[in-house]
Amino acid sequence: xxxxxxxxxxxxxxxxxxxxxxxxxxxxxxxxxxxxxxxxxxxxxxxxxxxxxxxxxxxxxxxxxxxxxxxxxxxxxxxxxxxxxxxxxxxxxxxxxxxxxxxxxxxxxxxxxxxxxxxxxxxxxxxxxxxxxxxxxxxxxxxxxxxxxxxxxxxxxxxxxxxxxxxxxxxxxxxxxxxxxxxxxxxxxxxxxxxxxxxxxxxxxxxxxxxxxxxxxxxxxxxxxxxxxxxxxxxxxxxxxxxxxxxxxxxxxxxxxxxxxxxxxxxxxxxxxxxxxxxxxxxxxxxxxxxxxxx
Length: 295
What we know:
This protein is an alpha/beta fold and about 300 residues long. It folds into 2 domains: about 1-150, NAD(P)-binding Rossmann-like Domain (Rossmann fold), CATH 3.40.50.720; about 155-295, Orthogonal Bundle (N-(1-d-carboxylethyl)-l-norvaline Dehydrogenase, domain 2), CATH 1.10.1040. It has helices at about 10-20, 40-45, 60-65, 90-95, 110-115, 130-135, 150-175, 175-200, 210-220, 225-235, 240-245, 250-265, 270-280, 285-295; strands spanning about 1-5, 25-30, 50, 75, 100-105, 120-125, 145-150. It has a 7-stranded mixed sheet, with helices on both faces.
C-alpha cells in the first residue's frame, strides 16, 4: 500500500519506520528533511493512506493552509485538545475530512521503542469500522492493532493522560514516593474517565489500552516529554526554560490550558488538571500538593 506520513518528528518517523515493513511509505514535514522517501506536500497528498502527526496546537492552521481532501483515508496519530478553542482533534478534522474517511490512533507507545521493533499494542478508533480494520492490517507484526468505534473516548484519554503525566513528573521530582505516585495516577484515571463520560465517551475505553494503558506508560517514565515537564516544574523552572530544555512539543501543556477553560464553562470537577494549570502559571508545587490532599 502507498502510505504518506505527514510529520517527521520522533513519532512520525517511528510510524514511517513501522509501516514501511510491509508498505511503500513516503514522508513529509514542514521543514525539508534529509530522510529516505521525503517528498513534497503535493506528492504526499496523492497517497491513498495518510498518517498525520501534526501537533494538536498546530493542526488547525496546518489544515487550513495545506490540506486538500481528495478521498484519502486518514489516520490521525497526534493527541491533544486545542488550547485556543477547546476543540478536540476530531472536531477540528471534521471540517476537512468526512467521518467515514478518518480514524484516530491511541494506546501506549514510545517512539523510541517502536523504532526498536519492540512489542507494542495500539487502538485504531473510527466511526467507520471497515476503515479501522483496514488501517489495523497495515501495521507490522510487532504491533498488535485493535479497533474501536469510541472516537471520543480515544480523544479524551489521549489528551488527558498527558496532563496527568505532568503531575506525575512533579510528584517524582518532589520525591513524594511510590505511594503518592500510585494514588495520583489512579485518581487521574478516575478524573479522566469522569471528564470523558461528560462528553459521551464509553466507560470501558478508559480501562483499555488507550486509557489506563497510555496513562500508566506516560505517567511513569522519563521517556515521556510531559513527565519531564513535571520534573522541570518540580525544580521551579519556568515553562520557557522547560520547553527550551525539551527541544520538542509537550502536548500536555496546551491541553492543560484547554481543560481549565472547559472546566469553567461546563462546571466540571478536575482537581488534578486544575493544580497542573496553576503550577504552570507559577504556583508552588508544595502548595498544590497541600491543596490536593485537602480537597
